[in-house]
Amino acid sequence: MEILSMSCNKCGAPLQVPTGTNFVTCTYCKSALAIHRTGNAAYTEVLAGIDRKTDQILEHVEAIGKQVDQTGMMYELCEISWRLGKTRNFLESSPLIFFAQATGARGSYEAGTSPPTRYDSQSIGSGRVVPKQHAQAVAALNQLIETLSRDSWELYESGPLWFHHKFRRRFR
Known about the structure:
Blueprint: E1 3-7, E2 14-18, E3 23-25, E4 32-38, E5 41-46, H1 47-66, E6 75-84, E7 96-104, E8 107-113, E9 121-125, E10 128-131, H2 135-150, E11 154-158, E12 165-170
Antiparallel strand pairs: 1-2, 3-4, 4-5, 6-7, 6-12, 7-8, 9-10, 11-12
């Protein structure tokens, strides 16, 4: 049996690996390693790195899956959230701004924002605070929803909070 002389990709320690072996554990740093061969060359790769890459690929596939409906139609997805705007001076309270964060072929981007409005908060437990539902805030949210609708976004899900809505539109 032929033995390959290699080094650990993590710590650099020398390894003696029998030909045909696909996985090995480094005797020095105890890292689990995959053995890769290309032509006459062979090298190791730490399996933890492979696991991390695999998890990233799975997350990407799941995100794409959420963008395809039962008919196979591809959609961009968009979700409304909120943030506090900037003030001109420290005496002024921060305005509330609703925004639509989208994910699509162009990656992640902001699909629209509401006009700034008065911010009043309410606690929803566990130290979480959200905007209170009042006429000015509802009007600002509705303006954002109208903007999204004009831009071909369609509502497909409403969340547990009064302002939380999800939209989708066909890829352009």
